Amino acid sequence: MKTKKTVFSTILLALVVSICAQSADTLKIKPSFYEVSDYVDENENCLKCHGETKYSYSDADRGKTLTKIMYPDLIVDRDAYYDGVHRSFMCSDCHMGDFEEFPHSLDARMEDNFACIDCHGYDETYAQYHFEVIDAEFAESIHSIDGFSCWNCHDPHSYKPNMRDTEDIKEAIRFNNGMCLECHNNFSNFMLLSDKDEINVVESHDWLPNQVAHFRSVRCIECHTEINDSILVAHKILPKKEAVQQCAECHSRNSRLMHSLYKFQSQKDRKAGYVNSVILNDTFVIGANPSPLLDGISVVVFILSFLVILFHTALRIIKLRN
Amino acid sequence: MTTKKIYVYPVWVRLWHVLNAICFILLILTGMSLHFTTAEGNFIRFDISVAIHNVAAIIITFNYGYFVMGNIVSSNGKHYKNWRKNLATNLWRQGRFYAFGIFKKEPHPFPVSEDNKFNPLQKISYVIVMYLGMPLLIISGLGLLFPETIAYTVFGVSGLLLTDMLHITMGFVLSLFLLIHIYTCTLGEKPLSLFKGMINGYHDAHD
Predict the structure, then answer these.
(1) How confident is the model at residue A186 (pLDDT cuts 50, 70, 90)?
(2) pLDDT for residue A273
(3) b/e sequence A177-192, b meaning 16+ C-beta within 10 Å
(4) What percentage of residues in chain A have a pLDDT greater than 90?
(5) Cα–Cα dist B106/B102, whole Å
(6) Which of A156, A233, B148, B202 is the most exposed place for a label (fewest CB within 10 A)?
(7) Chain B residues with a Cβ under 8 Å from any Cβ in chain A
């Protein structure tokens, strides 16, 4: 009997310990959320449904609880939200409609979304990011069509600076290109916004040598946007006929990559007195790495060799005449 | 003075040499064009340079294999051996000849023979160029042709950068060698006699 009690106590203790010791990472509402937001509990009123793949509600008429699948575009990932730049916000800061009722009213569901410019434009706090220029560029972009807004590429529920603060440029490039490929490599998404035929990204770039290396090493926007030095990331997406197809635009001295992909790093380096150091580090681009010292040494050695040959030749001619 | 014809350049060596020379000149021209590219353009269009450079590089790589195999299976390989023997003394004698003796019409210290067609300076430079320079140039070039095979970083520095620097450096060194090689080929009995030898296979030896 005593043995049974001991076994039972041990199992119970183990259960209690395992529940208490559950990793914070497996919790839906993590303690870290409270460190970055004062509205975690308020937001849970929304996220208890919109943070899940399924939601349940009571059907008073039928007298039972129903479970439905949440439309994927309406799901907000808690981890991503509390890691994003808008993490300190309360849902109702932006979603001002009457969402407390369920089912939500038609007015609430049809509310206009804010665009970046609505909060960040014409505000000294964000002046350094030039949202007005970004907005103007987007208006001229090939993406400026009905149904296309900032949110198609930048999810406000998870947005955070990518290129600006990255320590891993390859990962930042993968993330950036993922934004484009979300539609341009997924016809189901593409056809929601365009009537054009399906694009095969690999085939349409078959002229590009070392295609895989290019796709891993540069963002789509390096070639598909017009460079604008007044903003950090160019937003004027060009028609495909105007995309860069001249290798020398990147693989050359004064490479356009220094004004796009490596802009953030090169700006920092220029402040520190270095030029092109980023390209000479782990993000080397063939042809874009002028080394004046090595080039200079090469020219001097070549000229000296040539002069020695000329001198030797002259002596031979003189001696031959004598 | 009698002239004796010595057959020192068999057909396969001459074929290898002419193909090597054509490819090497194309590689230098296109390589320089690529290296000094500006966004405004270069003296050979970038994509054309790349195409010519890649094709010439592949041909020269196979041609190099042909050269190495030829030296293994034929007696031509003997000219690239025993280069260490009396190296310092022999180099001094040959160097002194080029610096002074040649102007006094002194006889060549190491006359060409069927067993010894290179002088010590030629021998050591050809050994270094063909068995060290060319492999490094080819391996680094293949790395740039297939960049996915290059280590992303080596001790925190881009593997692509290191490979490119090696390729450019070796390209420059071998280009310099070509300049000196062409000039030294005018140092025969007559300025064009050594060039003729590489065309007809015979070296004119004078007693």
Answers:
(1) very high
(2) 47
(3) bebbeebbbeeeebee
(4) 47
(5) 6
(6) B148
(7) 34-35, 37-39, 41-42, 46-47, 50, 98, 102-105, 144, 147-148, 152-153, 156-158, 160-161, 164-165, 168-169, 172, 175-176, 179-180, 183, 186
- Torsions phi, psi for A59 (to 5 deg): -100, 100
Element spanning A58, H or E: strand A54-59
Closest chain A residue by Cα to residue B173 = A298
Q: Residues B19, B25: contact at Cβ < 8 Å?
A: no
Does the pLDDT of residue A151 top 70, yes or no? yes
pLDDT digits (tens, 9 = 90+) for A22-44: 555 567 899 999 999 999 999 99
- Using one digit for the tens of pLDDT, what is the confidence trace for A55-89? 998 888 888 889 999 998 899 999 999 999 999 99
Look-up: residue for tokens 């690239």? B80
Which one of A287, A301, A313 has the shortest CB-CB distance to B176? Answer: A301
Q: What is the pLDDT of residue A292?
A: 81
Specify the pLDDT at position B29: 96
Length of chain A: 322
Q: Which chain B residues are Cβ-neighbours of A312 within 8 angstroms?
A: 98, 183
* Binary contact (B37, A289; C-beta < 8 A): no
Of A21-30, A100-109, B163-172, give the lowest mean pLDDT range: A21-30
In this complex, which of A253, A298, A302 lies closest to B38 when CB atoms are compared? Answer: A253
Pick the residue from chain B with its C-alpha nearest to A292: B36
Q: Where is pLDDT greater, at A259 or B82?
A: B82
User: How far is the alpha carbon of A318 from chain B, nearest alpha carbon, in Å?
Assistant: 9
Nearest to A248 among B46, B147, B172 (CB): B46
Contacts of B41 in chain A (CB under 8 A): 248
Mean pLDDT over B61-83 rounds to 94
Place of tokens 């796009």: A260
In terms of CATH, what superfamily is B3-85+111-206? Transmembrane di-heme cytochromes, Chain C (1.20.950.20)
Task: Answer whether residue A283 shows pLDDT above 80.
Answer: no
**Residue B99: closest C-alpha in chain A:** A312
Per-residue pLDDT of A237-247, as tens digits, reads: 999 999 998 88
Report yes or no: A321 at the B interface, CB cutoff 8 Å: no
Cβ(B71)–Cβ(B126) under 8 Å? no
pLDDT-derived band at B186 (thresholds 50, 70, 90) equals very high
- Exposed / middle / buried, residue A40 (Cβ in 10 Å: 0-12, 13-18, 19+): buried
Closest CA to A286 of B192, B12, B17, B54: B54
Judge residue B73's burial from the number of C-beta atoms within 10 Å of its C-beta, 0-12 exposed, 13-18 middle, 19 or more buried: exposed
CB of A289 closer than 8 Å to CB of B164 = yes
Q: What is the distance in angstroms between the Cα of B191 and the nearest Cα belonging to chain A?
A: 10
pLDDT of residue B20: 97
Chains A, B: CB contacts under 8 A, how many?
Answer: 81
| Closest-CA residue to A266 (of A298, A303, A229) | A229
